[in-house]
Amino acid sequence: MSQLTVYNSLTRKKEVFKSIIPNRAGMYVCGPTVSGESHLGHARPFITFDIIYRYLRHLGYKVRYVRNITDAGHFEEEGREAEDKISKKAVLEKLEPMELVQKYTNLFHWAMRAFNNLDPDIEPTATGHIVEQIGMIEKIIVDGYAYEANGSVYFDVEKYNRDFAPKGMPYGILSGRVLEDMLETTRELDNQEEKRNKADFALWKNAPPEHIMRWASPWGEGFPGWHIECSAMSTKYLGREFDIHGGGMDLQFPHHECEIAQSAVCNHHIPARYWLHNNMITINGKKMGKSYNNVIKLTELFSGSHPALEQGYSPMVIRFFILQTHYRSTLDFSNEALKAAERGLKRLWEGYENLKKLPDSNNGTQAANTDAALNEKVTSLLAGFDEFMDDDFNTAKVMANMFELVPVINGIKDKHIAEDALSTATLAALKGKMKTFMEDIFGLMDEQESKDGKLDSVLQLLITIRKDARNKRDYITSDKIRNELATIGIQIKDEKDGNMSYTIG
RNA sequence: GGUCCUGUGGCCGAGUGACUAGGCAGAGCUCUGCAAAAGCUCGUACAGCGGUUUGAAUCCGCUCGGGACCUCCA
C-alpha cells in the first residue's frame, strides 16, 4: 500500500501526507468573492479540491473541509480612491449589498451542485466573522505588528520579517520572495501615504461616508482587509495549525503569504502544513481572468451563449475536462478540447454503464476460459488507480487506465472476449473499483435525462416497432424511426444480439 | 526589471533517464440490410543547438518561443 504524497508549495517538493491528528484532516480552501458570477477559471479549484476532499475521505480520513465565502468587499488597492467591489456593484445594480451577495452566492451554489461538488463541512462568510477578524487585528496591534492610520490598520511587514525570519517564518516563505527585493522594485502605487512601507497590507480599512458596507470597530467604522478573513476563519474552525490550505496559484502571493504572516503573529504557527495550489485555466494561452477581459461565465459555458463558444458544454464535461489534466498544469480552453472531452466522457460513461450490466459471475463455469494475462492486466490497471491518486492526485493517469479498461468491458459485452475470461473476483474488483473512482472519487454522474418513466416506455415502444419492421425487412420504417429520433437527439444503437438501446443527448 | 514555470504527434494532454500513457480527430479492417455504436490494426512525437551518461522527452548550459506572479485575481 503506497502512501499519499502531495506537492507542497511551501517546501516546493512532494511530501508524504501525514495529518496532525491520525485519521483526521483539516482543509481550508479559499472560496469565491461573491460580487459577481463565477467563470470557468473559478471552477477549477473547486473541482480540484472536491476531488482531494473525496479522496481523503476515501482513504479513511474524517475531513473537515472549510471553504469561505468572501462577501465583504475588499479593496482594489491600485485604485486612486479605495473602492469596495461589492458596494460599487450594488449601487450599479440597485441592490442592497447583502441582496447582491446573496444573489451571487446562490448562483455559486447552483454551479457547485451542477458540478456535483460535495458541500464543504463549513462555509463561513466574512461578514459573519467581523468580530473574529477585529479580535485578530487587535492582537496583532498589541503585539506590535500593526499600526493605525486614519482609521485604517496596516500590517507592518518589515518588522514582522525582522522578528519572524529568525524563527523560520520570513515574509516570502511561501512564494519564494525576498522582502528586500520586493522593497527595491520600483512600482508606482497610489494611496500609499498611510502605509509606512509599501509592502504593508491592510488589515482594516476606514470606510468613507458613502460606503455602504461598514462595521463599527475600535478604529472607527470600516471593513476588514481581504487577507484577515481567511486567517480568522481558518483559525476558528481548524485551529492554529491544520493540515491543508488550498487555492489557486494566483493566491499564493500576496494572499496566502499575508495569511501566514498574520497567523504567525497570532498563533505562532504557519497555519497549514501542506499548501496546495492549482494552476490556471488559460484561453488562447492567457490566464482567464477579469483583468484580461477573457472570462467565460459558467452560465454562458453551460448554455453556449458566448461568442467564443461553438456550443454549450455540460457541467460533467467540464469536470471531466479538468480531471484529464493534472491540477498543477495549466489547462488551455478551446472548443476542440471541450468537444473532445465531451466525446471522451460519453465513451467512458457508456463503458461504465456496460460494466454495471455485466453478470456478476459466470454460472459456476469457473476458470474454464479464464484468461490469466487479461486478469493480470485488469488487476494491474486497477491497482494504478490508487497508485496514481496517491502520487499527488494524478487524475489524468487514473483516467488513462480507465480508458484502457473500456475495450475490455465492451469486448465482454459484445462477446469479442469470452464471458468468463475474467475471474469472478477480478470482475468484482473491476466493478467495485470503477464505481468507487468514477462516482465516489471523481464525482462523475449521468447527465442523461431520466430513463425512467413515461419517456422510457415510449422509447421501448418505438424500439419494439423498429424491431418488428426490421424483422419484416421494412427498412423504410425502421430507418425512419432511427433517423427521426436522431433528429430529436436520441441515438438508437443496434446491438449484436438484435437488442437495441438508446442514449439521449 | 525581479522571481518562477513552461514548449510533447493534426488537436488536447500524461510522463518517476532505459520499458513508445490516454483522449479527440484521421486511415484500414471486422460486425451490420444500411448507418451508428463497439472491437481490432495503424501514425514512433518530444522547440533548436551543445553537453553529461552505456543510455535523455526526462539532467546541465545556451538560444528562441509561450506563460504566471510581483496590483484585485481561482
Structure description:
With 505 residues, this protein is of the alpha/beta class. It folds into 3 domains: 19-278, Rossmann fold (3-Layer(aba) Sandwich), CATH 3.40.50; 298-441, Isoleucyl-tRNA Synthetase, Domain 1; 453-504, no CATH class. The chain is built from 16 helices and 15 strands. Strands 4-3-9-10 form a 4-stranded parallel β-sheet, with helices on both faces. β1 (5-8) and β2 (13-16) form a beta hairpin. α2 crosses α3, α4 (130-142) packs across α7 (226-238) and α7 (226-238) crosses α8. It is elongated, with a radius of gyration of 27 Å. It binds one RNA strand of 74 nucleotides through α1, α6, α8, β12 and α11.
Features:
3 domains; alpha/beta; Isoleucyl-tRNA Synthetase, Domain 1; RNA-binding; 16 helices; 505 residues; Rossmann fold
